[in-house]
């Protein structure tokens, strides 16, 4: 017999999943998930795990609750470990209780992993503590949408209205006029502050504060829809003072990241922390070489060289992988001079215990050439582990300066077979503010996947950011001008420029 974990996925911010939930996702055989749960969590599942979507969107049930229950029981009887993931907390308006009862009846083992419920999290991200000694002694979670088949309402509006409790309504936007009306007619002060938080904890979070008597009209004017949390009570007056999330510099800005997935995590996470809605659209894939014999040979005779120049983090990664596979370690670098083309490459080397002897001030090939000339590269033997196809400026200029250069391909880059449909759709619906290019090949491959003519109509609404002059030049070749190019040709430099641009 299997086991079922009823797991709360939290309100949307992927960081708000619990450690325990992640551990279960990593080992589950089956994942059964809902509409509001973050899709990112699927990536935690092990290879071969069965992924089943049973969510509902509005009134449109993909699978009715009884069928969901049946499915869970059936899978558990097959002896599987099942992660049943639900938005927020499974026992707070999540029908997790019903699913658990069903499991008990079927004699199936289960555990509950609570999640952070939207009523608390969306409020906190909007600057509203649901309890606060100056305002209230209790908090009440209420459904704003009772089971329509119920004969008699379970609400006691008089109690809600007369208590000083903070009232947190789930699923209430449609019924907001009725909710406000019931509270006022039962005696709550019409001036009571009310907050609405839509898409709480996500990059597209929006919130506002009004009063019980005006909130319905204001929500309609602002076109506030589900999913929103409605918070009623004095604590809402802290919204402006304690709000922090919506102050993030890139909040709600749609940013496309075109780097290879293998390289994009740092940029994606930095943008996410700044509040951006990141759209990953990898245009490049990084592949190992078919044959590593030349690399192995070079590694076994490293002492023949004077300089070793790393031009990318990937170069470092693949070179060290080969080093490891040949049973050697960093001692082979003794006596060699080592250069890194930029700070990220340098950091990758430092992580391997190698402090580069030289990192140029300008993070492009031309900068390396200049610096190495100063360091007397003439007549020296230089080995450059890098991608099979890359700019030839570095080796050519070094040769011109009298160095003996050998290129050592340690990986290949290829065009990512990415479906452009989702990105075109996001562009079409105005969700994209920035398109980022971090190398010439991201530009070339982007316009391989999205026709330049197709992109033309977004020219004015989408700002293009290029990491440096070489990337810019490639972009210009496709008939577009960048709006942003940092002075320092690095990812942090690029991010800083996006932040500056957004503040304008
Ligand atoms: N079990 C969930 C609630 C499911 S009911 C939990 O504990 O959070 C669905 C309702 O939750 C939505 O109609 C909305 O009122 C609320 N909700 C869920 N996620 C939300 C979010 N990110 N921001 C605002 N409200 C949210």
Automatic annotation (TrEMBL):
Q: Which Enzyme Commission number(s) are on file for it?
A: 2.1.1.107
Highest taxon above the source species: Bacteria
Q: Which organism was this protein described from?
A: Maridesulfovibrio ferrireducens
Which residue range or ranges hold the Tetrapyrrole methylase domain?
4-215
Domain Tetrapyrrole biosynthesis uroporphyrinogen III synthase, residue spans: 267-495
Name of the protein in question? uroporphyrinogen-III C-methyltransferase
GO molecular function terms listed in the Swiss-Prot or TrEMBL record = uroporphyrin-III C-methyltransferase activity; uroporphyrinogen-III synthase activity
Q: What class of enzyme is it?
A: transferase
An individual GO BP term: cobalamin biosynthetic process
Q: Write the record's keywords in alphabetical order, separated by commas.
A: Cobalamin biosynthesis, Methyltransferase, Porphyrin biosynthesis, S-adenosyl-L-methionine, Transferase
Q: Would I find Transferase among this entry's keywords?
A: yes
Phylogenetic lineage? Bacteria, Pseudomonadati, Thermodesulfobacteriota, Desulfovibrionia, Desulfovibrionales
State the SUPFAM superfamilies in the record. HemD-like, Tetrapyrrole methylase
Query: Does the record bear Transcription in its keywords?
Result: no
Pathway involvement of the protein, from the record: Cofactor biosynthesis; adenosylcobalamin biosynthesis; precorrin-2 from uroporphyrinogen III: step 1/1; Porphyrin-containing compound metabolism; siroheme biosynthesis; precorrin-2 from uroporphyrinogen III: step 1/1
NCBIfam families (UniProt xref):
cobA_cysG_Cterm, PRK06136.1
Q: Which PANTHER family match?
A: S-ADENOSYL-L-METHIONINE-DEPENDENT UROPORPHYRINOGEN III METHYLTRANSFERASE, CHLOROPLASTIC (PTHR45790:SF3), SIROHEME SYNTHASE-RELATED (PTHR45790)
The entry assigns this protein to a family as follows: Belongs to the precorrin methyltransferase family.
């Amino acid at each position: 017999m299997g086991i079922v974990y009823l797991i709360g996925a939290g309100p949307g911010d992927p960081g708000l999943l619990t450690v325990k939930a992640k551990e279960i996702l990593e080992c589950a055989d089956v994942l059964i998930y809902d509409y509001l749960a973050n899709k990112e969590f699927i990536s935690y599942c092990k290879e071969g795990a069965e992924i089943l979507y049973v969510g509902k969107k509005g009134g449109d049930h993909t699978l009715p609750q009884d069928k969901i229950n049946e499915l869970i029981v059936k899978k558990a009887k097959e002896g599987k470990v099942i992660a049943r993931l639900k938005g927020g907390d499974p026992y707070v308006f999540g029908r997790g209780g019903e699913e658990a009862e069903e499991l008990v009846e079927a004699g199936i083992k289960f555990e509950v992993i609570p999640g952070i419920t939207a009523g608390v999290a969306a409020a906190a991200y909007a600057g509203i503590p649901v309890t606060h000694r100056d305002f209230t002694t209790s908090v009440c979670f209420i459904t704003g949408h009772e089971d329509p088949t119920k004969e008699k309402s379970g609400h006691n509006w008089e109690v809600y209205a007369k208590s000083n409790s903070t009232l947190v309504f789930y699923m209430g936007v449609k019924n907001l006029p009725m909710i406000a009306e019931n509270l006022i007619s039962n005696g709550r002060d019409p001036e009571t502050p009310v907050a609405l938080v839509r898409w709480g904890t996500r990059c597209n979070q929006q919130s506002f504060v009004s009063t019980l008597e005006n909130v319905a009209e204001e929500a309609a004017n602002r076109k506030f829809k589900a999913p929103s949390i409605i918070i009623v009570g004095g604590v809402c007056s802290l919204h402006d003072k304690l709000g922090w999330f919506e102050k993030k510099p890139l909040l709600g800005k749609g940013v496309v990241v075109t780097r290879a997935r293998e390289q994009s995590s740092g940029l994606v996470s930095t943008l996410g922390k700044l509040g951006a809605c990141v759209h990953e659209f990898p245009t490049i894939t990084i592949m190992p070489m078919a044959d590593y014999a030349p690399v192995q040979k070079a590694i076994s005779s490293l002492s023949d060289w004077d300089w070793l120049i790393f031009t990318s983090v990937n170069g470092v990664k693949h070179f060290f992988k080969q080093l490891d596979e040949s049973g050697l370690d960093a001692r082979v670098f003794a006596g060699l001079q080592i250069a890194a083309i930029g700070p990220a490459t340098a950091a990758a080397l430092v992580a391997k215990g190698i402090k580069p002897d030289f990192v140029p001030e300008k993070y492009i090939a031309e900068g390396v050439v200049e610096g190495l000339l100063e360091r007397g590269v003439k007549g020296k033997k230089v080995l450059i582990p890098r991608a099979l196809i890359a700019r030839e400026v570095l080796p050519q200029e070094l040769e011109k300066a009298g160095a003996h250069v050998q290129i050592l391909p340690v990986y290949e880059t290829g065009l990512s077979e990415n479906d452009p449909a989702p990105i075109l759709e996001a562009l079409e619906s105005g969700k994209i503010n920035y398109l980022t290019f971090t190398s010439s090949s991201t530009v070339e491959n982007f316009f391989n996947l999205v026709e330049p003519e197709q992109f033309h109509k977004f020219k004015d609404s989408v700002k293009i950011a290029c990491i440096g002059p070489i990337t810019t030049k490639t972009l210009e070749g496709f008939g577009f001008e960048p709006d942003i190019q940092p002075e320092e040709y690095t990812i942090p430099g690029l991010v800083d420029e996006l932040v500056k641009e957004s503040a304008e």
